Amino acid sequence: MNRGRLSQAVLARAGWAALIAALMVAPWLFYPLFLVKVLCYAMFACAFNLLLGTCGLMSFGHAAFFGAAAYIAGHAAKVWGLPFEAALLCAVAGASLLGAVFGYISIRRQGIYFAMITLALAQLTYFLALQLPFTHAEDGLTGIPRGKVLGLLSLDNNVVLYYTTAVIFLAAFGLVHVILNSTFGQVVRAVRDNETRAVSLGFEVNRFKLLAFTLSAAIAGLAGANKAIAFKLATLVDVHWSTSGNVVLMTLLGGLGTLFGPVAGAVIFVTLENYLADSGLPVQLVIGAIFIGCILLFRRGVVGEIEHLLKR
Amino acid sequence: MAEPAVLQIDGLHGFYGESHVLHGLSLEVSPGEVVAIIGRNGAGKTTTMRAIMGLLERRTGSIKVKGQETIAALPETIARLGVGFVPEERGIYASLDVTENLLLPPKLGEGGTSLDELYRLFPNLRERRRSQGTRLSGGEQQMLAIARVLRTGADLFLLDEPTEGLAPVIVEQICTVIEGMKNKGLTVVLVEQNFHVASQLADRHYVMEHGRIVDVIARGELDAKLDRVKSLLGI
Amino acid sequence: MNAQVILGQLLVGLINGSFYAMMSLGLAIVFGLLGIANIAQGAFYMMGAFFSWMLLRWLGAGYFPALILVPLIVGAIGMVIERLLLRRIYRLDHMYGLLLTFGILTFIQGLFVWLFATAGRPYPVPAELRGGFDLGFMFMPTYRAWVVAASLTFCLATWLVIEKTPLGRTLRAATENPSLTRAFGVNVPALMTFGFGVGVALAGAAGLLAAPIYSVSPLMGGDLVIVVFAVVVIGGMGSILGSIVTSLTLGVLEGLARVVYPQGANMVIFVIMIAVLLVRPAGLFGRQP
User: Fold this and answer.
1) What's the CA gap between C93 and A127, in Å, rounded?
2) What is the pTM assigned to this prediction?
């Protein structure tokens, strides 16, 4: 057991080092805008994975928070003229509120029923987005200004945008890491593993779950807001169930419940999506096939497989 | 042994996940015999029954039912060789009424007891035939569990703790039923905690402890070995 | 707000409710027997509509032959999918079932979008069912009356088979205690394949019934199945009659909402789901926690 924990710690440290190095070097090797997209989805996947890793709850409606935040950030930046940081803050606040409300409703059930409820709530959000005037329905919210970071550097420079996003990503990722390893994280995991015991020990089970859910929604919101401002666009696709499905697939590909899995998954997914869009192959068809293949043959995901190999 | 064994187990090892529960069990049952498996709680008696029935996830060794190797067979295949199973928990279906419970197990061969005959043997079941299966008392559920496999025409029966938790009057009734099966020439493997019942019915007793057979006692030898048996059973 | 409008919307609501009933019945059978939340039910619904269209377009086979052929074809495809794909994940956590069927939904929808693009194709109301009749208080289009009657017939027939026949008895037993049922000699794995086929055939039949009303598009099943999931959360999956009643009621309520607040009609069922969850977390009829 000690060897296992040691190799996990080594792996984590190696992973962090590799991640930071990669983040610093990446814009010399890849298009910054592509990297920004990867990082936004990586945050999104980390948020989803946070809920899964702590509470064992798999949300099929995380697009609700991602998309709602995209719209809020877009509206704040474009219509209210708020600076970049303020727009992000508004969006995260909005996503957190939505998360708290949706969490309160969904947490009453577990497993399959929980997933169904999150799916339904996200669909409700989709229909709201369709109706509310400020989202401009099918046209979407376009022309979102990027503004300046810290009031100094213009985000219209893609490299500046990239490094800003990278910092935001590292903060979010670090937060997820801390939560997963913290007392809070351990408690919630204990709750997941043996809820009756935890309740009998006096833990306010539902309060922990709700907090985890809200945090997960907040980080998903951060990702959505960042994406909207970076790409100057918030659309109905951001709140659609296919986006909820995509974040699940990303995390699955990378490794459900692992720390770096969501990041790896986001890299693979965004690369794949770009390639497919260019090649003219049917995107949804291929994604569906990969989903099926993953469940049947590759459940551990990339990082999961690596961890498994190292444990031997 | 003139006739080939109806049930022959050789070196059976059984596992629940990582847990090694049966350690090289061997036993043999001839046609028409009533054989009891006795032993303390946790000795592995129910596990053995489940292994015979193909319900234990991992088993190695050899189990032959009527000469056919079934160590890797599916439960439905094993049942169709003519095996009737009455599990420890009785397994009465809540979503079926009494009649449906009776009719559920498919016919496995000729010579099964007819529905009318079963209602004659177990009048309580006829009375309650439209009741939901689990509304019956413990004793009635046990009767139902036995009755429904009698209908199938099976000739090898696995009865797991048929008298557990039942009042003495009901226990007597069940003993009568099992004796009736014996008289018909059916083969019965009986797991029994109740030593009195086992000794009354069985031709031979296999004593189990920690997943192994530790002794075989024929009917005639019981008196002689009584003290040993009692200490093994902890009574 | 005249009575004609209200009654018209109630009828539409009843129709939608009938579709919800067939879909949720199929979901319940699959969930009970296989332990899988089959979100791909939406894809089978869509395929039902598409195969009807194909039968008409390419083979000249009309509505009534389709009524028999389409459920059979969809059911057969379902059985193949169960044997090849679903069977491999039964021993895993229930969530993998939902994940896999989600992948299947995405794949099938993607396939049909690729082959047929997203635009809806019309499917004509069969000649025998055109027109309508005057009830006095409203005009009843024949096809719509037919849809409600046919759906209810499918549902009640399914209920009859499950509750009153030997096959249904075996299905109920296998749903409650699969391993014991196998120990009696029943080929439960084959039964599960068959059950899945029946469950998705119901969706396919609903797709055929819907085709003349909603036109045929690869995207038609995705949004529908999510609503049906909400219906199932509200009514639970334990009781067949409960599912039917819940579905019809919710359909009608949705129709009423469409009268009062048309833009919000789509959301009504989700709002009701939220209300039910806050008051009765286990759902109205269901036994699941």
Assistant:
1) 31
2) 0.91
